[in-house]
Protein 1
Amino acid sequence: MSVMNHDTAEVSAGATVGDGTKIWNHAQVREGARIGANCVIGKNVYIDAGVTIGSGVKIQNNVSVYAGVTVEDDVFLGPGMTFTNDLYPRAFSAEWEITPTSVKKGASIGAGAVIVCGVEIGEYAMVGAGAVVTRDVPAYTLAVGNPAAPVWRVCRCGRRLGGDGKCSACGAEWPYLRSGDREQD
Ligand SMILES: CC(C)(COP(=O)(O)OP(=O)(O)OC[C@H]1O[C@@H](n2cnc3c(N)ncnc32)[C@H](O)[C@@H]1OP(=O)(O)O)[C@@H](O)C(=O)NCCC(=O)NCCS
Ligand SMILES: [Zn+2]
């Protein structure tokens, strides 16, 4: 296996990219970035210097993964979703601080969502399209809206879990995720 870089992709010689990863048109991968195996890096994606991306990650078109963001294995980043890394941006400020953000294994972020930095998107969590995330999203939880709020638990397959922790879509059971319809926390 090897890496597929589109002719127009710009991948720094100082970046490392795992086997089987595909990097599409006009994507840019900066120096010191580390991308795992079997990822798909879409058109116009920007991976900042020093960023770590796990294996099996899918990044849809027009996503920028800025310094301070960590993306674990099997994460899905929907088209045009936006990360941030500066909580109090000023164009004229020379001293600014990166606030880290973490997207844990198997989590998905819907199209056009905005992640305000300093949060953790938990394992297999899901963020709805267009959400503005300002607080941590617990593992196996769907959060939607602005500001994003948890609405219900989700299965590893992405569908809603019943109150008994059973998935009506794939039949998987997650008894420790038993809950009411709506998250109260
Ligand atoms: C959030 C999501 C997972 C919910 O899907 P679902 O379980 O099928 O939910 P439903 O469509 O039955 O909607 C349930 C309720 O949530 C609302 N809702 C659905 N998606 C929403 C979103 N992104 N933001 C806010 N509310 C949303 C619906 O309007 C509905 O509200 P109602 O009960 O008041 O009528 C889905 O709508 C979504 O946003 N998926 C991400 C899609 C995406 O960005 N894909 C990227 C790759 S193309
Ligand atoms: Zn399921």
Protein 2
Amino acid sequence: MPYYRVVGEIPHKRHVRFHKPGGGLYSEELMGEEGFSSDSSLLYHVHPPTAIVKSEVLPDPAEEARLIPNQPLLPRHYRTQDLARQPGADLAGTADLVLGRQPLMGNDDVRISFVIADVPSDLYRNSTGDEAVYVYSGTVRFESAYGAIDASAGDYLIVPRGTISRWIPGRYGGTGGTHVQALVIEARGHIRPPKRYLSQSGQFLEHAPYCERDLRGVAGPLLAEGEDVPVIVRNRAGLTQLTYARHPFDVVGWDGYLYPYAFNISDFEPIVKRTHAPPPVHQTFEGPNFVICSFCPRPLDFDPASVPIPYNHHNVDSDEMMFYVAGDYSARQGSGVGIGSITLHPSGFTHGPAPGAAEAVIAGMMAGKVTTDETAVMIDTFRPLLLAETAATAEDTEYAWSWARAARGG
Ligand SMILES: [Fe+2]
């Protein structure tokens, strides 16, 4: 994270005696990236964060979704509303935001899943990398050793690797009758704001499409009581359940640059040009060998001669995944793509708007429609995305032929 925060109580210097009111010392825990050589936070626990009493292997629902090459090479279209029940759903048909994740695609750098969660998750620590959880609908309370963040539709929640957390659907952890839908991006490394938007010391620059004021951290410390508390840990080998002697949410204060935070897509300030601007203007985060972009409502390109929708393009080094969240997708008219759709346009295939879409949007501009209300989340990866076999139930297998169909007037 680019800047320093302090939450709760901390002593005046690092690594000095910090006494508990009832006697004894608080236990320090340094959460740090890149072996003491990058961002970190120093947490103060009531109980030692090292005290575990049991360790057991857990079955991993995500591993059941085998990833296979996109072969034969095709552009793909999935409808999230058609996805089969999540692999982590229990007999009552309920699922949580951790074990209920349904993998859609992935590679060695990133795994992308969709989840519909209606019950609280167990405590969870992902030790394989950072997560970006994009809330598509509903509300969810994110609780962690750092504190809690209440999130709703349009929020990206960035969770650093190793954070112990849990997800509780419903506003402020309310109970029953509510669910949350989310796109989950699990990186094999760190997810950060793009470097080009940051000063040397990490401050957002004036030309950045968002800044520190748009990032929401935790409100305060979150203290929970409990003994023999299970925590599901994901590492490269799979899932383990570690049982902690005392509840890990016992941090009275912390400070540093490494912590979970939320950013709402509606706080992204779109960058527009007189003629069409390419997706890098929409970039919101970067991860190892991938980027995350936010397409937000904005004025259409405003040159009188502009073609105000994307040109056909072939990013020869990237696969492009797009999640259509809200708005009117003029450029995709006739393709079958709508709200809730996810498309994949792989390297090896040239993609673009449906034939005839440009003419339709230009006619709309002449009639006074000079803005677009589209909202979408895009993930571009620099290595090919493999496909989860289980997502095939939600695939629109006619999508690949939609450009030819439109060109022929079909
Ligand atoms: Fe594209």
Protein 3
Amino acid sequence: MTETDVIIIGAGHNGLTCAAYLAMAGLRVKVVDRRKVVGGAAVTEEFHPGFRNSVAAYTVSLLNPRIIADLRLAEHGLRIVERRAQNFLPAPDGSYLLTGEGRTRQSIARLSERDAARFDGFAHELEVIADVLRQFLLRAPPNVVEGFGAGSIREAVNALGTANILRKLTLEQQRNLLDLFTRSAGEMLDDAFESDLVKALYGFDAIVGNYASPYAAGSAYVMLHHAFGEVNGKKGVWGHAIGGMGAITQAMAKAARGHGVDIVLEASVREVIVERDRAVGVTLDTGETVRAKYVASSVNPKLLYTRLVPPDALPAEFVGRIRNWRNASGTFRMNVALNAPPSFAALPGSGDHLTAGIIIAPGLGYMDRAWQDARAQGWSREPVVEVLIPSTLDDTLCPPGQHVASLFCQHVAPELPGGRSWDDHREEVADLMIATVDQYAPGFAASVIGRQILSPLDLERQFGLLGGDIFHGALTLNQLFSARPMLGHADYRGPLKGLYHCGSGAHPGGGVTGAPGHNAARVILRDHRALFG
Ligand SMILES: Cc1cc2nc3c(=O)[nH]c(=O)nc-3n(C[C@H](O)[C@H](O)[C@H](O)COP(=O)(O)OP(=O)(O)OC[C@H]3O[C@@H](n4cnc5c(N)ncnc54)[C@H](O)[C@@H]3O)c2cc1C
């Protein structure tokens, strides 16, 4: 048995962030993870001899600049570079959209003068609301508390702070905010634009990790969720961490260890120990116990409460609700080793567009059909694929002249209909994803010399992402903000004393942000000071 102040379940980027902040404040912290490497879904691994890539998460923007600075991630080796072009969307008719600094408007104008005239206004309104969201990232949302006491006074003050942020918006901007939280991205984009590719540019963000049609109510929020990031001070921009996403979590682990955090790998938590309604430690699969004043969990909340906490330790209504926590991404993830860069029919040869997020989904109708198909058959005949070729920005990933590409594919059913298993269909669907890219970049399939495939089932097995959910729970209105992971527990405190949520299942949700880890650390420290001064 060992003893510490805080035991953190999971050495993903949020567990590491939480650990680093707690240790910086002087607490003794131990982090345990069932995998061989730190990083959770933000890792870089060799997937084919001589070829490394980000295994799951593959692109940076949402990582909070304050956390980068506080943890001194740059000093610990993290370098993030911008893509030379942001997005490239080829269409089957040979037209394309290429976005990025200084090129977006001109490229849109070739598709639609009307859309080019409207684009800046739409982007500006989205940016205004994203700015509001940014102010909520590093603070706990107002939490619902019953009765009257210190907690209710604290939450009343928190609610006033929230109202104060919203008050700065004009009435029209508040209406836009309401639209973005409740409407479908498809409707909003149809109202704003006429070009399919321009709509697809934003529509893609609305279905990333969201197993839904872009016409589903609430999908506009998912679009907004992908807009609050920045790279090296440039808002809304996406970039690449040199060395892949694992470079972020390696730097975080160095920062945490530098402050004395003990990170133990290949250490799977079997159970959270509960004594007199308080979480007091964990038991590992090996039988070893670690006792702690506080337990912080960065795993999916449904995993925590249905597999790791004894059910009789929890209120029955809490268990009933968390069983219905919706996990669904519809994501299929591949990494491919290439002996040549792809050449797209719409824009042949090399160029800055190969550094972009290349979106194969030339319209909202295409995305809607992909979802309908996946619901009916398990995957879409014409899937949505984002291709990213990080080796165009980073020569540390593979031999010179060769390339690695991430394929982020949607829509596939988290569980296949008819009781079929992903184990029997993984290769077939991987072939389909490669063939889909090949239609737009002839020769792509022939250039693939190695591949790694992660179906939703593989994402669950390897990373503990239930249902393959990349966000630890869908970003729907009933699972967001004060309701993440449940009304009454949005303050990072679970239903048991001493148990905290520090992963993506807490506000502000999924993505490599570090925000849930940061916010949970603040709450744990507040409770620690209240107890021990
Ligand atoms: C395919 C995919 C693509 C994505 N793309 C992007 C992207 O490009 N950009 C972006 O910003 N975000 C992306 N995301 C989302 C982002 O990666 C996640 O939301 C984020 O990494 C989750 O971080 P976390 O620390 O909250 O949890 P995780 O990274 O899931 O970490 C939780 C940790 O808990 C460990 N664990 C689980 N069970 C136990 C146990 N019983 N005992 C001990 N340890 C346990 C796991 O091994 C894991 O290491 C993507 C995710 C996926 C899966």
Protein 4
Amino acid sequence: MESRYSPADIEEKWQKDWAAQKLFETPTDRSKPKFYALSMFPYPSGNLHMGHVRVYTIVDVIARLKRMQGFRVLNPMGWDAFGLPAENAAIERNIHPAKWTYSNIAQMKVQLDALGISFDWNKEIATCSPNYYKWTQWMFLQFVSAGLAYQKEAIVNWDPIDQTVLANEQVDTEGRSWRSGAKVERKQLRQWFFKITDYAEQLLQDLDQLDGWPERVRTMQANWIGKSTGAQVTFKTEIGADLEVYTTRPDTLWGASFMVISPEHPLVEKLTKPEQSAAIKAYQEASASKSEIDRTAEGKEKTGVWTGSYATNPVNDLQIPIWIADYVMMDYGTGAIMAVPAHDQRDFEFAKKFGLEIKVVVQPIDQTLDGSTITKAFTDSGVMANSGPLDGITAGKGKDQSVDVAVQWLESQTKGKGTINYRLRDWLVSRQRYWGSPIPIIHCPDCGAVPVPDDQLPVELPEDVEFSGKGSPLAKLESWVNVPCPSCGTPAKRETDTMDTFMCSSWYFMRYPDAQNDKAAFDPSIANDWMQVDQYVGGIEHAILHLLYSRFFTKVVRDRGLLNCNEPFKRLLTQGMVQSKAYKNSKTGQYITPENISDITNPVDPETGDVLDVVYEKMSKSKYNGVAPSDVIDKYGADTARMFILFKAPPEKDLEWDDADVEGQFRFMNRIWRVVTESGVKANSTTIASGNFSKSEKDLRRSIHIAIKEITEDLTDDYQFNTAISELMKLNNALNDFTQKDSHVFAEGIQTLLRLLAPFAPHIADELWHSIGNSESVHTQTFPVLDSTALVVDEITIVIQILGKTRGSITVPSASTKDEIQALATASEVAQKYIAGKEVKKTIVVPGKLVNFVIV
Ligand SMILES: [Zn+2]
């Protein structure tokens, strides 16, 4: 036994030992209750960063704790391995994406193992492996059979540099590509979509089942689904065709003074009068090159062109002009809106700019507004006016209020009908990229889109392709593209789009329990045994799309009869960021590397001389504030790194890196080492001490069981690792201060400390556990259980005050009555020193706290 704590000597040894003993393999025996712990799987960039360390450590503590608490645990790990970076590496470095990806995976695996994470590597998956994407393709075809996949010509965000379609969230607020920085263009392409909108209501309703999720994530999901109620109303036009409008405020129809349709609306051409034709065409062309964000940004200058035509407002038969404007999107609602400028700020700005009528139909209680003089839209509550059957009714969405009444009136007049609308749109799953799962479809001139038969899956990615960086390499590979139709044999062409990588991550958690199955995506009895995931941990950046798509997949797979659960993730924890100190020149916006700063306590920019701001920001290379996990592990060991990360902040909060606090945790590991190695304890029994205890033994037992109680509570429901570690520190101090080293209670304390420590700092806990004479791993032990009799306090301390001033204290039996306490206090040496021979006017007894003597 080394007398000095040296993590380098013990950590690798135990990692090997655990692997050899297969300690973390997922049990197949179903007799114990199950616990499915899951961390969001990483993109294999090649290097583990501190954010990874945080999330995997959190999940590891939970997994280790649950094993010790008697659960059979599934704690798998895999790789979200398709995506653009691998393809860009192929283009830039002439290395095949597969080679690049697998070498990154190998590197990261070594780094993960060095952290002592208890993953079951038998469950490992990589989404880019044909063994996995075969089943992603099979899943795609499940959506096709269910009628939930379709092709549609759609306007997409087009990145002219990467030659690919971008999702809306891949376009920044300035309309630039998140990756290439190119100004995003609009382009029509035939794409594959999934009908997630068919599940909008379920996805919204079932958020109620997710009480183990952070409230803000549920709110974000609900907002993204964006359910609204309103009415569908038909406006007749002078060309005979109707314009359908959806509005959440059908009560304001009487205030509609013009209509706006999207520049892409199919009726634009017919509605355009010859004299307006040139202006309309020019406007359409200009808006085609703008991104959605460009077009719909709040506060942007309003633009638009009148078509020259009119529509009839169905509620009052007024003729109102029809305009086109780019803030109306074709794939949003019906692509046409009625404009009520008096009560909608965007419509108001538009009407002001183009001199259109503004008609007030909701009047505030205390004054009368005039449409020609108001300076902004009136959107507060009020009473309906100039609105025919609605006049005098309270404006709003409650029972018997204007919206309700308007819908009833429209329906009774057959001028419109009440409708529910969702902001959620169908999921565009096509990508024009190589490094993704090929969409298993063959386009036949006679049969149309034909699914690749199951027995021909997977459609493997061809390896002999060229990466030029322009367009999809798949589309250029004739030998791959040209195939006979599986249905009729006619020469046909493969679909050359690959799938959005969100497809791969929307079902991986169903695959893990049965990860090596080569006959099916999973055996339903195995998947049903493990699902739902009991605790999912990952970043808040996935609060919307990944979680929504995974929930959608789960419901569809359930409806295909493959899974029993409605929701994939029972509980969700979104961990905070890992931040560290960065030096920023606020004038130039540049970050300065600390190595170039001569006086770090008064940092100035070495080039400009400007005083630098010291800020805590998310670790990143570009801010020169990253801390490499391997540096910390090499210096202090993985246990210290884990303890720091867990202790520094509650898991959902941001964490500020601090070298001094890392050092502090290293010292704590050393204190534990010393207390245990100097304890002389050689007891290989884990039984609770019993018998007659001395007072100091009783005190120590109380400390031991308070630690068990507090730590167990900290790790139940919420995971408050930081306060749990504080309790470990207290227990270690109590053991350190205890002098009777041969006591059974002391032995109980040492063993309890190590078992409580095991989930947090697994290596040192196992080393010390063996050092006191145990032959089995501490990770196979049960987590300590509270003996509540140890918490009973025999004696309590009572403060003695004379005239309200504290003079000392006494101990009394905890069961003493008020009178007994007074008697003991009066007789005590402390009190007698002051009250002997004096007249005690009054004695105030506060049971459990103090006795105050009022003397003359
Ligand atoms: Zn055919």
